[in-house]
User: Fold IS630 family transposase from Saccharothrix syringae.
Amino acid sequence: MEEGRKLARIGRTAKDPVRLRRAIVVLMSAQGQAVPDITSLMQVSADYVRDVIHAFNERGFAALDPKWSGGRPRVIGEAIRERICLIARTSPASRGITAFSTWSLSKLRDHLLDRGTVAAISRETLRRILHAGGVSWQSTSTWKASTDPDFLVKMHRILDLYDHPPDNGRVICIDEFGPLNLMPRKGKAWRPTGAPRRLRATYNRHHGVMHMLAALDLTTGKIHYRIRRRKRHGELLELLRSLRTRWPGQRLHLVMDNFSPHRHPDVHAWATDNDVELVFLPTYSSWLNWIEAEFTALRYFTLNGTDHHSHAEQNAAIAAYIRWRNARARPKTGFATDSPIRTWTHYPTKAA
Assistant:
């Protein structure tokens, strides 16, 4: 009776079709049904039914579990698989093929067959070999090395300000965002399958462009900004004066890039007279400016997927996002704590 209850439970809950079929065969036999009746109902051979019943009598419930043999052995060995991944990671030109600059699965397959690397292989098998070998289809990225001879000194100065902001001052990251022109912008959104949102196509850029001058206060995590028609040193000084008024009595440490308005003599003179330190990034190192990540979020959530028809409409959308973001802002801490830049003793001149 106990075996019967267990077989019935397996028949209700088993997810493996082999285990389920074998349990039903044994249960029907225990209920007194003849082999021909079981074969007719289960659509299996009489030998299969007898083998299952005899195996259950000999080994019990262990006989219900399938014994997978592992399938056919691999035709393409491990050494050939590694070679395929190596060839895929190199350019066709390095293999003497100058007609194209990158591999497709079809071209790589043809090359492997022509060179006798494999006797036969399908594109799907090739795709699986590359996936198992950790080789994926990726876009090329660019790397612009800094030419600043004082790169490490400047980088460590900025990292030190991020990690240990002065007690009597504020660290503020300054940068420009834009140009803000009026155009349909691609973006992503949840939509019914096969029904993407459509935006108009246009080659016109009416109404000119505008520029956002922004400042990220690391103490509060809030962004302060201005949107202006130009981004000259006069517009920059307007923003800096507002920051100076906001925090009187505190020394301001302004992290910014080497854009010419930032280095204007009037800006330097104003900083000297108003207890402001200008901390310049190394050349070609905008990624060290903490505000860049905020610009990425601004573009993704506010501009991508939009088609504003006036600057007033677009500026209002940016203002709404900044208000939403500042209401949830937190102090900025922990800049690139696990990044290799923390251990650099020299600046790499090319991408790793």
User: Anything to note?
Assistant: The chain has a mean pLDDT of 91. The chain has three domains: 2-64, 78-132, 151-186+205-343.
